Amino acid sequence: xxxxxxxxxxxxxxxxxxxxxxxxxxxxxxxxxxxxxxxxxxxxxxxxxxxxxxxxxxxxxxxxxxxxxxxxxxxxxxxxxxxxxxxxxxxxxxxxxxxxxxxxxxxxxxxxxxxxxxxxxxxxxxxxxxxxxxxxxxxxxxxxxxxxxxxxxxxxxxxxxxxxxxxxxxxxxxxxxxxxxxxxxxxxxxxxxxxxxxxxxxxxxxxxxxxxxxxxxxxxxxxxxxxxxxxxxxxxxxxxxxxxxxxxxxxxxxxxxxxxxxxxxxxxxxxxxxxxxxx
Length: 279
Ligand code: KIV
Prior knowledge:
TIM Barrel; 2 domains; eight-stranded parallel β-barrel; 12 helices; elongated; binds 3-methyl-2-oxobutanoic acid
């Protein structure tokens, strides 16, 4: 395994050469699946709060839970670049605490970098984390940890003012040292402008086809989260329905005596059976 492949800076090399493909994962099994499929990087996203823990949003996520998810993904996808998502309040209180928490993603979660939500307002914190030797992936546009301020989970950058702010945020994040920037729920043409304005790769989620790469939530790609199917998601398999059908079949076969059959049963040697039946 080339160590460079596991460096977030390997993504920078791909800008303008080949599309970058990322996906989220949260546990050992999903990590094995996405590594086997050959993604360029894995984000252990704080979306785990919703798709793994059934919370309504990501605010309740904390460092302890994130580290459990990161450790599991690191065991399942040893040879893939892994980025941990810094949860709400893990980088807001002080730069010292932000560096410490980012460090835990590397030290305990075995991640190769962290993602931080926000633009200009978090740039100096990002700079401090980068200066501590921890690569940072920026995230602007729809930032769910700021959804209260944004007035919900809405497409961003539709007005002149907000579009200009996003362009500025991207440039500020680049100067702060991020290795790439996630653009979430941004009109495609604006994502194109941002992609052309910065030298680091842009990774879109709901940001159209002109970004340097794409990322989606694992559960959306494999159809395991039917509660929410945003417009920008493409579902490649209806996993919830397929798995539910399999479990229904299991219940039916148990109830009707088809399962377990001889094939799924262990045998006892005949003499042993005779002996115990005598007693
Ligand atoms: O938490 C997450 O899954 C994310 C992606 C949607 C980019 O931040």
